[in-house]
UniProtKB/TrEMBL annotation:
It comes from Amycolatopsis nalaikhensis. This is Flavin reductase family protein. The keyword Oxidoreductase applies. It is an enzyme of class 1 (oxidoreductase). SMART domains: Flavin_Reduct (SM00903). InterPro entries: Flavin_Rdtase-like_dom, NADH-dep_flavin_reductase, Split_barrel_FMN-bd. Keywords: Oxidoreductase.
Length: 172
């Protein structure tokens, strides 16, 4: 077993070793994969891939997603009043990679529909949650977006899973 602490490490600087091991530890936590989408004040579509997503509360129905402050879509999500969390199916791995790539034309394909509020929704997602902005919290190099789910769409697909820096299949 390898153990590293943030202080008192021999060899490479402790903060570099600890940071690398922290990232490795986080990669060992299997997670679902989402694409979070919104539009800005000019109607432009924005989105990002997030595996940092979870339920916060059942009453009211709150969820959170974490967005890097360096993301192309940061400004749009910092001010948007609504967004959509699209929980991806295993067939969406290429789409997840596109939305995770800085500078990519995220909406280059025709995968997304537009809902009644003008928000991009992935029609073949395992689930889509339309969320009204509830709160935003800066946290290190990320922004925590908390939204209240105001609409939910469910589909019968197998979810995409991310583990050890790669996509994995969920087995029964």
């Amino acid at each position: 077993m390898t153990e590293t602490t943030a202080r008192g490490q021999q060899g490479p600087p402790a903060h570099e070793t600890f940071a690398a091991q922290f990232r490795e530890a986080m990669s060992r936590f299997p997670s679902g994969v989402t694409i979070v989408t919104t539009t800005d004040d000019h109607g432009a579509r924005w989105g990002f891939t997030a595996s940092a997503f979870c339920s916060v509360s059942a009453e009211p129905p709150l969820v959170l997603a974490c967005l890097a402050v360096s993301a192309d879509s940061y400004r749009a999500f910092r001010t948007s009043s609504k967004w959509v969390v699209n929980i991806l199916g295993e067939q969406h791995a290429p789409l997840a990679k596109r939305f995770a790539t800085k500078g990519a034309d995220k909406f280059a394909g025709d995968e997304f529909d537009t809902d009644a509020d003008g928000l991009p929704v992935l029609p073949q997602a395992v689930a889509s949650l339309v969320c009204r902005a509830e709160a935003r919290h800066p946290a290190g190099d990320h922004l925590i977006l908390i939204g209240e789910a105001v609409n939910v769409r469910l589909r019968d697909h197998t979810p995409l899973v991310y583990y050890a820096r790669d996509f994995a299949r969920l087995s029964a």
